[in-house]
Amino acid sequence: AEEVASWPQVKLRPMFGFLGAYRGSMIFAALPRTRTMDPPNSVAFKLPMANKRLRAKAQSDNRIHFADMARASWLTFAMSSDADVNPVLEWLGRAY
């Protein structure tokens, strides 16, 4: 959360047990705070689904899950080790 909060124009706001990450007035990610997502140890982020190249890249990454909210462009990235920190930050950067 600290890394994302340091990005320009980003504000973190409490949201139902998560921290909503906003760039200006637009939310682009939800980070766990007191609740977890499905799958556990996940970070949620929003991508423009009209971008077919980006969607294909997300679909090819087995750590990314398209949940029921996929119609709203929300995906989750399941983190299983410290090695996942940089890749999840890259995806959050794309969402940013």
What's the topology here?
Blueprint: H1 2-5, E1 10-15, E2 18-23, E3 26-32, E4 42-46, H2 52-59, E5 64-65, E6 74-78, H3 85-95
Antiparallel strand pairs: 1-2, 2-3, 3-4, 4-6, 5-6
Amino-to-carboxy terminus distance: 13 Å
Q: Note the quaternary state here.
A: single chain
Uncertain stretches of 5 or more adjacent residues:
none
Strand order across the largest sheet: 1-2-3-4-6-5
Largest sheet: 6 strands, antiparallel
Overall body shape: globular
Instruction: Please estimate the helix content.
Output: 10-25%
Overall tally of structural domains? 1
Instruction: Please tell me how large the radius of gyration is.
Output: 12 Å
Structural class: alpha+beta
Give the percentage of residues in beta strands. Answer: 25-35%
Topology as a string of helices (H) and strands (E)? HEEEEHEEH
What is the overall pLDDT average?
A: 90
Task: Please report the number of helical segments.
Answer: 3
Total strands: 6
